[in-house]
Design brief:
48% of the residues lie in helices and 10% in strands. The protein contains 20 helices and 11 strands. The strands form 2 sheets. Strands 1, 2, 5, 6, 7, 8, 9, 10 and 11 form a 9-stranded parallel β-sheet that branches. A two-stranded antiparallel sheet has the order 3-4. Bound molecules: S-adenosylmethionine (SAM) and iron/sulfur cluster (SF4). The site of iron/sulfur cluster has 9 residues, from loops. GO terms for molecular function: 4 iron, 4 sulfur cluster binding; catalytic activity; metal ion binding.
Length: 463
């Protein structure tokens, strides 16, 4: 059973906040930006003001403030992961997705455990350490056990090139008891996107299957946290409805999780709708989000929930990804495929949607490093039990830099030694030296020590 309070995601409150804060004057905007640099988050009204900024000069100030906050909390660190689509079977009818049940235009597969293991080997060989397991909402005859077994399979693959150290999961909402079973497989983050918080739009675009039930989905993160999953990920599919409404509604959702569990989501994903096989809606989103608005969304989220990671996937082009790193993105996928079995074999039509960035992990890493960002494969927090509230306690006083900075450097060094092309090694080693030179005190000592251990042949070192 689930009891969603009647006023949970209060649409009237969202519209009122937007109505009352239209056409904000520059002094009010600057006041809010100054408050945002205290890194304590923002109120619904303050966020509403930021969503209404139009003037280029004010937008520039918004971007610069987001940049400063991102730098203070995260430094120049970008966490990398690969999605692993284990199945594209689905019983739902989401009009924007190629996996929807009635789409006859794609080949359907649920990978066997052996096939999953082979896909994982390919990813490990590329240098990946984090996987996001993804599936449609219909499993082979074993039901949820299929997902549980798949997580176990991913962790069990040990190759001469290493292993996967954190499995995050994006599957349809589960019951409390099922979430407990999922937790017992040692997942990292459980993530689910509401797609749209606007109930009328939600009903229009989810035409069949269990996903039609807005409340079942919107309360999923409550059940997950109640089941003991500390790290949860939230998101909206941008393009379905007015992005300003979606941001404010998502802030309500986050506030509710913080009130109830003392900690909000670990990550926010910002998927923007991409073309998908046989979906008119995906090619012509009802509320297209321009590149300029998309950057604004990232900047506002960075200020509104400063300690929550922002994830950007390969849906976006390399150019857009570069532009948003500076303003708040802290995790990216790289070298992705969205069709089950896609890492072993090409299949252009069976993916979930089209990708905007087709580069390999090595190319993405070289590009990111050339921009001065340290690609991080670190999984220390999760493995040391620094999740949920413990992670936030660490993050909030700014200590994140004392741990994550050195760990990012050593995990990057490990990547360079074991997986990178000669061109990437050159760019990467220079960046590691510059990064260590820019560090001081404990962080620097730790980084130097960890890098020396990696150079001496040790893998998987962290603090
Ligand atoms: N099937 C589960 C569900 O819907 O929650 C989990 C996996 S689903 C494959 C992951 C996400 O892909 C969805 O939540 C949706 O936001 C996103 N997605 C679906 N169609 C998309 C499209 N055309 N462009 C971009 N993202 C899309
Ligand atoms: Fe199925 Fe998820 Fe795609 Fe909807 S978004 S059709 S539930 S895979």
């Amino acid at each position: 059973m689930y009891n969603v309070p009647a006023d949970f995601i209060n649409e009237q409150k969202v519209w009122d906040a937007l109505e009352n804060n239209q056409h904000p004057d520059p002094s009010r905007i600057r006041e809010i930006l100054a408050r945002a640099t205290e890194m304590k988050g923002l109120t619904l009204d303050e966020v509403a003001v930021l969503t209404c900024i139009q003037e280029p000069e004010m937008l520039e100030e918004l971007y610069n403030t987001a940049n400063r906050v991102k730098d203070t909390i995260y430094g120049k660190r970008l966490v990398l992961f690969a999605p692993l689509y284990i199945s594209n079977l689905c019983a739902n009818e989401c009009l924007y997705c190629a996996f929807r049940a009635s789409n006859k235009g794609i080949n359907r597969h649920a990978l066997s455990q052996e096939h999953i293991a082979r896909e994982v080997e390919v990813l490990i060989k590329q240098g990946h350490k984090r996987i996001l397991l993804v599936a449609g909402e219909s499993y082979p005859k074993e039901g949820l056990q299929y997902v549980l077994d798949s997580v176990k399979t991913i962790y069990s693959v040990k190759s001469e090139h290493g292993e996967i150290r954190r499995v995050n999961v994006n599957v349809a909402p589960l019951s409390l008891d099922e979430f407990k079973q999922l937790k017992s497989t040692n997942i990292g983050t459980y993530q689910i996107f509401q797609e749209t918080y606007h109930r009328e739009t939600y009903a229009k675009v989810h035409k069949g299957g269990k996903k039609k039930d807005y409340n079942w989905r919107v309360w999923a993160l409550h059940r997950a946290m109640e089941a003991g999953i500390d790290d949860v990920g939230i998101g909206v599919l941008f393009g379905l409805f007015d992005y300003r409404f979606e941001i404010l509604a998502m802030i309500q959702h986050i506030n509710e999780l913080e009130d109830k569990f003392g900690v909000g989501p670990h990550t926010i994903s910002v998927p923007r709708m991409e073309p998908a096989t046989n979906s008119d809606m995906a090619s012509n989103p009802p509320y297209p989000v321009s590149d300029a608005d998309f950057k604004k969304i990232v900047a506002i989220l960075r200020l509104a929930v400063p300690y929550t990671g922002i994830i950007m996937s390969t849906r976006e082009t390399a150019k857009m990804r570069r532009e948003t790193f500076a303003m708040g993105v802290s995790q990216i996928s790289a070298g992705s495929k969205t069709n089950p079995g896609g890492y072993e074999e090409e299949d252009d039509i069976s993916g979930q949607f089209s990708l905007g960035d087709h580069r390999s992990l090595d190319e993405v890493i070289r590009d990111v490093a050339a921009m001065g960002y340290i690609p991080s494969f670190c999984t220390a927090c999760y493995r040391l039990g620094r999740t949920g509230q413990d992670f936030m306690d660490l993050a909030k006083p700014g200590d994140i830099k004392l741990h994550c900075g050195p760990n990012a450097v050593s995990s990057f060094k490990e990547y360079l030694q074991n997986f990178a092309s000669p061109e990437t090694v050159e760019v990467g080693n220079q960046l590691i030296q510059q990064t260590i030179d820019s560090m001081s005190g404990v962080a620097r000592q730790r980084a130097e020590k960890l890098v020396k251990r990696v150079e001496a042949g040790r893998d998987d070192v962290y603090c």
